[in-house]
Amino acid sequence: MKIGFLNKVFTVVLLVFMMAAFAGCGEQTVEKSDIKIATGDTAGTYYPIGGAITEAVNKNVSSLNVSVESTKGSVDNINRLKDGKADLAIIQNDIAYYAANGTEMFKDKKVDNLRGLASLYPETCQFVTLADKDILSINDLRGKKIAVGAEGSGAEANARQILEAYGLTYKDIDAQYLSFTEGAAALKDGKVDAAFLTAGYPTKAVQDIAKQSKIRILPIESDKASILIGLYPYYTRTTIPKNSYDGLDEDVQTISVMALLATTDKLSDNNGREITKAIFDSKENLQSAHEVAKFINIKNATLGMSIKMNSGAEKYIRDFSGK
């Protein structure tokens, strides 16, 4: 009798412990890692694309909690990656190359641990002026007040290189170091004669100008494009189709660089793979964030990749492309 009773008690106690254990397992949650993605000016394309990437990763990668930050752009973003103030960043492929090789604005400041996750879309170089100004070509910028981008930014480097292809330096113009937003506002207010930016078209800052006044985007002629591509192989020829902006009634020949999603060697290969997968699995949602996302395609995910890649991301892209 006593043995039977003890067996029953033992069985009940065992069941209670098992139920408690299962209940405890059910209450466990996956610990998430907080990571930041550095983007750009809110009037450019990095910020909305970065926001869409944030949403895609948070929805599809349970171990990560991503937040988006507005920044000054590519150079600032690389410095944030280097200093550990950001974990992911959207950057131009040419600026990434400069950082990885210690040239241009990163001379003697080489960043060894940059890693690429994927090429995203082309970023188009745009010299914008108002149609009522007597400025028909980049040569006509001589002696004019020009917003060339924030000092030391990726866009400013592009502006300088393009001007040099036309035989112009900052000594030949009145250079104003203004961001996308500042340059657009200055152009609308008549404080500058033209504004330069590098961003996927249509760019919000340019759209805002076009809604108020008829604009003109200065072309980069074929021979000048050839010079630039020869000196800087990251550039590619691009056509901005007419009607991309209000009142733009002609196609415009220009050049582009590529926007990359970058990180450092601190991001694990597994997280690199999962982030990359989440982006390309959510391509349609990204397109709702900005029209430029229509160019995001896994088939072009290594196009213009100018730095060493995260192994997990690289393997995912390679395996997908091999299917």
Compact description:
By secondary structure, the chain is α/β, with parallel strands linked by helices. The protein has helices spanning 2-27, 46-60, 74-83, 93-101, 154-165, 180-188, 204-212, 222-231, 269-281, 283-289, 311-321, and strands at residues 33-38, 64-69, 88-92, 114-130, 145-147, 174-176, 194-199, 215-218, 236-240, 252-264. The chain folds into 2 domains: 33-121 and 259-321, Periplasmic binding protein-like II (D-Maltodextrin-Binding Protein, domain 2), CATH 3.40.190.10; 123-257, Periplasmic binding protein-like II (D-Maltodextrin-Binding Protein, domain 2), CATH 3.40.190.10.
Outline, from the CA principal axes? globular
Measured by DSSP, the beta-strand proportion falls in: 15-25%
Unreliable segments of 5+ consecutive residues: 20-28
Oligomeric state of shown chains: single chain
- The rounded distance between the terminal residues' Cα atoms is 68 Å
Rounded average pLDDT: 89
Overall helicity: 40-55%
CA-atom Rg in angstroms: 25 Å
Number of E strands:
10
CATH architecture descriptor name of the largest domain: 3-Layer(aba) Sandwich
**Main structural class:** alpha/beta
Q: Major sheet: size, sense and barrel closure?
A: 10 strands, mixed
Classify the fold: give the CATH topology of the largest domain.
Answer: D-Maltodextrin-Binding Protein, domain 2
